[in-house]
Amino acid sequence: MLQPVDLVVALKLCCHADGQPVSRAESAASLGISRRRFDDAVTRLVASRLASAESLRPRAHSLMEFLCAGVPYWLPAEVGAIARGMPAATSGPGLEGLGPIQLAEVGEWVWPGAPAPFDRHVGKALQPIDPIVPTAAARDQRLYELLSLLDTLRVGHVRERDAARAGLSRRLGLT
Fold first, then answer.
1. Residue 169: CA atoms inside 13 Å, Cβ hemisphere, count?
2. Which residues contact 20 (CB under 8 A, 6 or more apart)?
């Protein structure tokens, strides 16, 4: 059965350039998890048909379908009080260049518990899908964009979710 960290691993695998070999040890270290936890996540992704065992690459169409249709129900957004943290969802990177978007009245979304200096923003606390998200996003800009787009699917309004789908589709190489 999938665990939330598996999605972070799947999105990390999406960040590797085509043709570039994926180092499991380096990927695990950049996420701040053990190699064993990374390998377990890959095993679950392969069993769920969200990644290919041979190439260690996500199956883009299947992953996209799961991110858009399953994640908002499997991992509904947990919103907290105003907090200090790292910009997330519609406040994070990833939506720029996708057309005019009227952001929700909520103001800025943040992931609490982000490492310094990424914790300078104040906004409505959004619990990330896994505790490793703020640290992993701070280490990898491409992953940060994917995770912000994923959280936009969890908390955004219709127009924001549509823009997030377009951004994910482009970054997964589907368009």
1. 11
2. none
158 is in which domain, residue-wise? Answer: 76-171
How many other C-beta atoms are found inside a 10 Å radius of the C-beta of residue 132?
Answer: 17
pLDDT digit string, tens, across residues 84-141? 999 999 999 988 755 555 554 457 999 998 888 888 899 999 999 999 999 999 999 9
Say if CB 149 and CB 101 are below 8 A apart.
no
Please tell me whether residues 37 and 98 are part of one structural domain: no
User: In one letter, which amino acid is 133?
Assistant: V
Report the run of H or E that residue 54 belongs to, with start and end.
none
Angle at CA 139, nearest 5°, toward 136 and 143?
A: 60
Contact 89, 152 (CB under 8 A): yes
